[in-house]
Specification:
40% of the residues lie in helices and 19% in strands. By secondary structure, the protein is of the alpha/beta class. Helix 4 (129-150) packs across helix 5, helix 7 (199-206) packs across helix 8 and helix 11 packs across helix 15. The longest helix has 22 residues, at 129-150. It is globular.
């Protein structure tokens, strides 16, 4: 897509100001101007449909570092682009960050400190003051970019752990601003967060918002306890309020949904159904299992492969009759932990193929690449069983996407209790990734489940995902904001049956923590085209 720079201030409706680490597009400079490539993730899949309907601006990093000294000053400005070009969509505003600062902020603090800490892999976390300083500086860049947009009462909607300090930074310079924050990954308990040397500053940053939302009530509980223990705030958890420094901050569990209608339309299309049949024919076994996620150590891919090997060992009658399709999207390849993970996965795939191949039919088909939404839905339709078994996951949209895609009413979802989505999908079969014997038994139960039970479970799961879809998530966010500030909020997203809401159900306190799935997907858009592919997962 060839980008066009933004025109007048009135050329796009600007009710909403979204801030996230990544833009929904990667910006690439070319001889004919900027080109846009979709960089799709779970966050983008959830937020972009809202912004396309409300109008506004999305502020984030577009894949380019700051221009070097001596370059044309005009080229160093953060460009603004309309999406779609010439339409009444929304505006992109790119944040360009110097390379060393970006690496320290992103690789160093966000992914080297917060990511492992929030997923309770404390031994993987590192705490470098230089990384923290870069994190503070980059958050200030984002806040400075957002301030001009907030002066007429627009709502700032800040996303995820990369930008935890932005709400307080905005509040300091615009006391009357309306600010919502959504935390997409698990929020850790007090004992874990307290190991972070800058835990108080992080919490204070978040409490600059009017609303702080999470996927599950367990994360709300952890956040409230941390605010009480580390900041001395007063939390009314059952009421969803925190009192701090003369302000009342709303806290709420708002699990993200999927674009239900988009998945229905794709799954019913002749092209996707034909592709699903082609996948089954190419695999050639009666039963297909499917795993889809980024190659991240939180996703439990080596553990899943171990459990699948245990399944083939315990139930040899299924050797040569069951194939696991594993899509692992490479991510953060610069970091040693991710390089090591990829090596472990590839070794496990090779071992399973060497041990359990039948007539040169390997038990695992593995692809280390990204796929677009249409291809994903075809795989969801082709698979008899969806395996979503992370070690920890804030939510995991793949679980909901698999259910939404099963327009045939069949299929079985095996879901880790450590995924946030497990709180909303009780009809899924539980599978503990830390216990290979248990997960192997869950795979066996899924494969041998009678058709009436499969259809009964899937019908219940589909109704839950339909009720709490993407539009529901946005409507509930607006409702919470109205209760906080009283000022007019952006209009709700219209959809058939708008206004229905699923009953709010709070899981028990011992419900396990989890992390949001983020499957990075990139598909180049041809000049003049619009992005049509989306995926599951985190920028």
């Amino acid at each position: 897509m060839e980008a066009r720079t933004a025109g007048t201030a009135d050329s796009v409706r600007r009710e909403l100001v979204v801030l996230s680490n990544r833009l929904p597009y990667t910006l690439e400079a070319g001889a004919d101007g900027l080109r846009l490539r979709p960089a799709v993730s779970g966050l983008v899949s959830a937020v972009e449909p809202v912004l396309r309907r409300t109008g506004g601006v999305w502020i984030g990093w577009g894949g380019r570092t700051a221009a070097p000294a001596g370059e044309d000053p005009q080229a160093r400005e953060d460009p603004q682009v309309l999406v779609p070009p010439g339409g009444l969509g929304y505006r992109l505003q790119e944040i360009r960050i110097p390379e060393p600062e970006f690496r320290a902020y992103y690789d160093g603090f966000a992914n080297g400190s917060l990511w492992p800490l929030c997923h309770q892999f404390v031994d993987r976390a590192s705490f470098d003051p230089a990384h923290w300083e870069a994190y503070v500086a980059v958050n200030r860049r984002f806040a400075a970019a957002a301030l001009p947009w907030l002066r007429s009462g627009r709502l700032a909607w800040v996303h995820d752990f990369h930008l935890a300090l932005v709400p307080r930074q905005l509040r300091a310079q615009a006391p009357g601003a309306r600010i919502a924050f959504f935390w997409h990954i698990p929020f850790p308990p007090h004992e874990i967060l307290a190991t972070l040397p800058w835990a108080r500053e992080l919490l204070a940053g978040l409490l600059g918002a009017d609303l702080v939302a999470f996927h599950t009530w367990d994360y709300v509980h952890n956040f409230c306890r941390c605010a009480e223990r580390l900041l001395g705030a007063r939390a009314e958890e059952e009421a969803g309020r925190i009192h701090w420094q003369g302000r009342v901050i709303r806290v709420q569990a708002l699990p993200i949904g999927v674009d239900w209608q988009a998945f229905q339309d794709l799954a019913r299309s002749d092209r996707v159904q034909a592709r699903a049949r082609a996948i089954r024919a190419a695999v050639g076994t009666p039963v297909i299992l499917l795993g889809v996620e980024r190659l991240d150590y939180t996703k439990g891919i080596p553990e899943r492969l171990q459990a699948f090997g245990r399944f083939l060992e315990r139930y040899p009658e299924f050797q040569g009759r069951v194939t696991l399709l594993q899509i692992g999207v490479p991510t953060r390849d610069r970091l040693q932990a991710y390089q090591e993970l990829r090596r472990r996965v590839e070794e496990a795939v090779g071992w399973l193929s060497g041990r359990y191949s039948q007539n040169w039919q390997p038990p695992v088909r593995y692809q280390a690449r990204s796929v677009d939404r249409e291809e994903l839905v075809a795989h969801y339709l082709a698979a008899d069983v969806g395996l979503v078994t992370p070690l920890r996951d804030g939510l995991n949209l793949v679980a909901k996407e698999y259910v939404a895609s099963r327009v045939d009413g069949d299929g079985v979802l095996v879901l880790s209790p450590f995924a946030g989505a497990a709180a909303d999908l009780p009809e899924a079969l539980p599978g503990n990734p830390y216990h290979p014997e248990e997960l192997a038994a869950a795979i066996h139960k899924a494969i041998t489940m009678p058709e009436p039970e499969r259809r009964r479970r899937m019908a219940a799961l589909r109704e839950r995902v339909r009720q709490k879809d993407l539009a529901w998530w946005w409507e509930e966010t607006l409702k919470a904001l109205r209760e906080v500030g009283g000022a007019a909020a952006p209009r709700a997203v219209a959809r058939p049956g708008a206004g229905r809401t699923g009953a709010r159900r709070r899981p028990s306190r011992n419900q396990a923590l989890a992390t949001q799935d983020d499957l990075l997907v990139a598909k180049e858009v041809k000049p003049g085209g619009l992005p049509t592919a989306a995926g599951s997962g985190r920028p």
